[in-house]
Specification:
This protein is mostly helical and 227 residues long. It contains 9 helices and no strands.
Length: 227
């Protein structure tokens, strides 16, 4: 029990550090959130459709906007450790690599949850959607956020090790997140009443994806951040 508390405490220290850095830099608030809202607006303009059509496509457009914005958040999270020898200092600090991974993933998760909340408000205002099942909406959003944050942290470390974060990260990450995109979209179809599907069954897929990516990331992160 003491080891678990120490492990979670180490992860919390890393997460709190990343969140403090973000609070000072305001990159998510000033850049990522406006970018995500702009994506929703451009989707609406490109479809040139009425509210009924937009409501039908709203779940898919929502998650495409989330994934595109998540790339910016993940890139920001990875770049923080590449400046001023921070990654070397973390390696020498004695923190377990799994704690480092979970802490960084938790910080990205918090940012994604805030982003999702803002984008749901954007759907309500811009697309005129109605939330039919708020519990399903929240659970699916949280599980998808865990999967995206864990996968993003894992592949962000991989791309950073290769020295090509900007160009390689989307190529590595987006195909891996395809099942999450599909599952989250179908769950939101049900939660928003856009399609007659079993959203809870798709939420189960999201739970499995979140668990697998988190476990793999915690186990592999130490290898990825080694020189």
């Amino acid at each position: 029990m003491a080891e678990l508390r120490r492990f979670l405490g180490d992860a919390w220290l890393v997460a709190a550090r990343d969140l403090r850095i973000e609070a000072r830099s305001r990159v998510v608030v000033d850049q990522v959130v406006p970018f995500a809202l702009l994506v929703l607006v451009l989707f609406g303009l490109a479809l040139d459709a009425d509210h009924r059509t937009l409501r039908t496509f709203a779940p898919g457009l929502f998650w495409v906007a989330v994934l595109l914005s998540a790339l910016l958040a993940v890139h920001r999270s990875a770049s923080v450790d590449q400046s001023d020898g921070t990654l070397d200092a973390l390696r020498m600090s004695g923190l377990p690599p799994s704690s480092l991974f979970l802490g960084k993933a938790a910080a990205v998760f918090v940012q994604l949850v805030l982003l999702e909340a803002v984008l749901v408000g954007g759907l309500l205002v811009l697309y005129g959607v109605e939330v039919v099942d708020p519990v399903l909406l929240v659970v699916a959003g949280l599980l998808a956020g865990v999967a995206v944050a864990a996968a993003g942290t894992l592949y962000g470390a991989l791309a950073s090790g290769l020295g090509v974060r900007e160009t390689l990260l989307p190529i590595l990450l987006l195909p891996v997140l395809a099942p999450v995109l599909i599952g989250a979209t179908r769950a939101f179809d049900d939660a928003l009443g856009a399609a007659a599907v079993d959203g809870w069954a798709w939420t189960g897929l999201l739970a499995v994806a979140a668990l697998v990516v988190t476990v793999v990331g915690a186990l592999a992160h130490g290898v990825l951040i080694e020189d």
